[in-house]
Amino acid sequence: MPTLHHLNHSRSQRILWLFAELGLDYDIQTHERDPKTSLAPDSLKATFELGRSPVVTLDDEAHTPLAESGAIVEYFAHIHPEANLTYQAGHTAFSDYLYWLHFAEGTMMPPLIAKLVLGKAKAKKKPIIIKTIADKVIDAILNAYYDKNFAENVAHVEKHLARQADKGFEYFVGEHLSTVDFMMLFPLEAMLASQPNHVPKHIKAYVERMQSRTAYQQALDTGGEYNFGPRQAA
Ligand SMILES: N[C@@H](CCC(=O)N[C@@H](CS)C(=O)NCC(=O)O)C(=O)O
Predict the structure, then answer these.
(1) Mind listing the pLDDT tens digit for each residue in 207-233?
(2) Can the peptide bond before residue 54 be classed as cis, meaning omega within 30 degrees of 0?
(3) CA of 68 to the centre of ligand 1 (A)
(4) Architecture (CATH level 2) of domain 3-83
(5) Whose CA is nearest to atom 1 of ligand 1?
(6) Is 56 helix (H, G, I), strand (E, B) or coil?
């Protein structure tokens, strides 16, 4: 049986949702972020040397650690073809499928993480004179690159989801649930959780649709604390 190493408030929520959709039997080992640094605990490094989540150990003799959420969703989609979570060469959605699958971690996540990390650096307590200078530098970095980059990504996603809506399709690509939905929901729901009034309408509707799925709700029950979802702590 596979074991999911789950970290609170993290991308491993993607895998909990995937496993719930597949109705898979699996073990779960939960790791708690350090409340001060938000980093993963050392216990994760015992399983995977980079100490990041998600990681799945497979039921082979070597208990191979499989990391990268994209690789994990592809792996399970391939070994469960009956769930129909991919598009194959020859399907009209194939190129869209590959593009958005890689876009999630390759293009959407980097500026989101940079904004999150720089925002935390700004909020950190420091002597006033240092704060004034540090905040100016952080704002300059955000203005020069990450804010613009992130806004362009959001507009690009919104345009795509508007096209999907025009075709009457409720999923991120094509006409059925696919690995892309697991990958793209995470950054989009993180955005909705942190700035609910600034999310364009097709993205908002898509996130709410995915979050209302029974399997998604089951995954929330299983995973516990998850600040990027619809049930944030007060
Ligand atoms: N590209 C990787 C990113 C993995 C990653 O950075 N995970 C974060 C959680 S969302 C993590 O483990 N952070 C804790 C740390 O870096 O200490 C993936 O998609 O799985």
Answers:
(1) 999 999 999 999 999 999 999 999 876
(2) yes
(3) 8
(4) 3-Layer(aba) Sandwich (3.40)
(5) 68
(6) strand
